[in-house]
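BUG: 3D viewer hangs when loading the predicted structure for this chain

Environment: internal workstation, default settings.
Expected: structure renders.
Actual: progress bar stalls at 90%.

Input used:
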Amino acid sequence: MIDIDRIWEKLYPAAWKLARSADPIHDRIGEAYRGFRDLKGEAFPPESRILYNSITTRMTAAGAVVENGVIKTGAVANTLASMPEDDACEVAEHIFELFVQVAEVHFAR
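Structure tokens produced before the viewer hung:
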């Protein structure tokens, strides 16, 4: 079942972090993503699942750094460390697009 209120509660602050912070783009998308990464693709309306899953894939693409069975750097931090600025800007646009899609469903009720 889709809990659009829960999704909205996660994405609204994420959109604010993207829009209102003067931090570098990598920091902004990292903070925004960490705010809603505990959601699962199945939680989203069907038209938003692909976009959410794409954001998740891009934000974790480099994988975690593991040494001797211990995570030294998480997948998000490791990915952000090597992500080109153009890619980071695209991810920011996708997070905002996801926010808009959810807002349309949230306010259409």
